[in-house]
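Weekly structure sync - notes
Attendees: PM, LS, DV (DV joined late)
Agenda: review two folding runs queued last week.

Item 1: First target. Sequence and structure tokens pasted below for the record.
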Amino acid sequence: MLEIRPDEHAALVDGRPLSLTMRELQLLTTLAANPQRILTREELYAEVWGREPRNDDRSVDVYVSRLRSKLSEALPGQSLIHTHSGIGYRFSPDG
């Protein structure tokens, strides 16, 4: 079970700390705060990085990939972050 504690700058899986960078945690927190809603890359960038992205900036995609990798290692068989091609990402703890 994933537990996100933004005030403590922590994410836990089954009570064990998940090793995330601050940006990964901010990204996870932002996605999880909007379950089932597709967030555009621009929305995520503005929320996590605090500014508008450049046209060629792929930071959101890179960080989502890293975050997915860490989540899949900690929670095998669960897919929590879903891609919506050309739009952005959606957090769905139910699949």
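Item 2: Second target, run right after the first with the same settings.
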Amino acid sequence: MADEKPDIARLVDEAAKAIGLPIAPGSRANVILNVERSLMIARPLLEVELDDELTPGPVFRP
């Protein structure tokens, strides 16, 4: 399932509709391109497998 390519155009359209964000027709292609690029940047981080036994670090409070 991880090897399936997501339908970015549909993702953009549905996300914009869900939050009530209009995307101008002239900007839609660039929005799709930026989402594709963001996914490419995030992919290596999302593929890192974390140990279930890890605990979060403490929260810094000034």
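Discussion on item 2: Residues 8-46 form one domain.
Action: LS to circulate a short write-up before next sync.
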